[in-house]
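Entry
Fold in token form

___
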Amino acid sequence: MGLNVIVTVLLNGFAMGMIYALIAMGVILLIRAIGVLNFAQGDLLMVGAYITYALQVDMKLPLWLMIPVALLCFAAVALIFMFSIYWPLRNASYPAAIIIATMGASIVIKEIVMLIWGGLPLRMPPLFSNPETGGGRLLTIGSVNLQWQLIITGLVGAAAIGVVFFLFEHLYAGKMLQAASQDKFAAELIGIPTVITTAATYIISISLACIGGYMVGPIFTVSVTLGNLLLRAFAGVIIGGLGNIKGAIIGSLIVGIIEAFASVRISTYKDAVIFLVLLVFLVVRPQGIFGEKIQDKA
């Protein structure tokens, strides 16, 4: 395996790992803030891909206008999802009701998307296209050719995750969201409106997934099967440590790189390789890389 192939595979693995990390981070945010495991997160990534396809290809908006419009659309999708799925069931006596509702929402989202755009895959042009070939532009460094789309995907994913970390670690708004997630009743007593903090959490979580959809659309095709990427994100969450944001990111990068190398050698069995690694972690270290081991009480 030459240097060109190794560098390309690593870049591809990093880019896809960042996509999985965006999904995983959104999943972890909802688990930590609201206690809800969202099984529709992958389908919301798919919705983000279709929204950006409509804005970029159908409406032909310039990039400087498309990005803010897309972010507003992502926020609207998040609020619709929250008030239609979570809010009516937030006080349900059956704790798993919301989780089951997200499973149903996953099916409904697919059907709505197919009703609007049809079932055929759509081709989204890369951010930097080559007018001669119609494909993506390459960055040539010596003998190594790198796809600009993969580079941008990795950088945008890292930037989005960095912004969320900065929000929660250094800004008052992030501290307010964390306070509301730890004790909603106490947060209400000191004047923190939980409906706003819950909405903000959903907007951040679902926007991360939708941004991932925008990035992954040119790499694959825009289709309802993009929702299946949630399974790889779940693998990253478990490998990194369930409930640990840093672990979810690193676990997702591990999944992306393993998948990239498996695609070169044994592409037919790349999914099996990923879940074999997941199985090994479940047996050897079930709490994940950064998870804490729970001691059994006698």
User: Anything to note?
Assistant: The chain has one domain: 3-284.
